[in-house]
């Protein structure tokens, strides 16, 4: 049985694990990464962020072809099957794996493919893919094993018509109708994707409105446009029983409703991947969702074991996970760190959503005197040129100081546009002011020009007070 000694061993090669290992190597540590899959990248590359966003991009291109008159010279509107659309997704995944694999060799981080389990607080054993066992000792460990879809015991996920957000990528047919249980970020993203493919979608939401953490106006806009795409949104519903049949799936609701569809996509929560780590051997205990609790240094209750990424829960964003990985390496090296609390929200529905900072409801509850500046995309030249006329940008700012308090964007390229506002919000006082957008020349025509329009709209409201 082989045995090796490292300064740091990272379990998981997703965004958090990769960032922790690469950052540690650059700080002079001897680092290793253990990956359970036969290829690096974690859920982000193989099941979550990359596949779903690549799928969305392909579907959006298809939508553009089918809806813009200029393409009628090429032929009539067409429909593609789900497996056909997924062909482009696999190409992106393969490219991502190749690229990320090269990082390990370049940074001299040892990559070990196998399943890790703790023996004690400074030792793990790795069951290699060929059946051999390797023992690794390290001063510090970082758990970055990510998460998986939550599966309730009373739902038969072995049935060929019942999917979760991982297995949906393997669907080999195109259903006429799809029932999505859970209207969180993943549920809303897939609802818009399937609706754009011409599939009839029932989106079942256990709450009173969609994505309640968003600004109310943005949540309302999402609800409107999903319905405009043909999605049936059912709020405040909870399932009582799921009955899969040869012809489809029937969901009996606690309200007494019976909803039928060709297939079911379950998107109601995620669980941390901690069950096979042998946490009992080191005195750690995950919560009911398999997540670990950490302090401000991302350290668990065991001094030698840290955790980052989806396995610690909120915010469960790939962008935040990358930064958490770098932060935990800095903390272990004793070179300072930062707690990741200011990551922008990026939701890749059709149209997409992004926000950073406070919402109107939060500012109202805190009794902060604020005003709103809005710009509708349909009034910008770039949106008119590209045909992306749905959406808006809104800036929330303090009436007296003009400090920017929140940026909320709905529409094309929202996840890109929000970074402009985020950059200004991060400036120290007195540079974080909405006046920046009216005193700065933007390229024309661009979607970013919406910042100038929104700022003028907001400042005009204040000047009239």
Description:
- 30% of the residues lie in helices and 25% in strands.
- It has 465 residues and is of the alpha/beta class.
- The protein has a 5-stranded mixed barrel.
- The longest helix is centred in the N-terminal third of the chain and has 25 residues, at 82-106.
- The mean pLDDT is 94.
Keywords:
465 residues; alpha/beta; five-stranded mixed beta barrel; five-stranded parallel sheet; 21 strands; 25% strand
Layout of helices and strands, plus pairs?
Blueprint: E1 2-11, H1 15-26, E2 31-35, H2 42-46, H3 49-67, H4 82-106, E3 110-120, E4 123-128, E5 133-143, E6 147-149, E7 162-164, E8 177-181, H5 185-196, E9 200-204, H6 216-228, E10 232-234, E11 239-244, E12 249-253, E13 258-261, E14 263-266, E15 270-272, E16 305-307, H7 318-333, E17 345-347, E18 353-357, H8 360-365, E19 370-376, H9 381-386, E20 391-398, E21 404-411, H10 414-425, H11 450-463
Parallel strand pairs: 1-2, 1-5, 2-3, 5-16, 7-14, 8-9, 8-14, 9-10
Antiparallel strand pairs: 3-4, 4-5, 6-15, 11-12, 12-13, 17-18, 18-21, 19-20, 20-21
Q: Counting H and I runs of at least 4 residues, what is the number of helices?
A: 11
Strand tally, please?
A: 21
Instruction: Give the CA-CA distance, first to last residue.
Output: 77 Å
Strand content: 25-35%
Please give the oligomerization state of what you see.
single chain
Determine the mean pLDDT.
94
Class of secondary structure makeup:
alpha/beta
Strand order of the largest sheet: 1-2-3-4-5
Largest sheet: 5 strands, mixed, barrel
| Poorly predicted parts | none
* Residues in helices, as a percent range: 25-40%
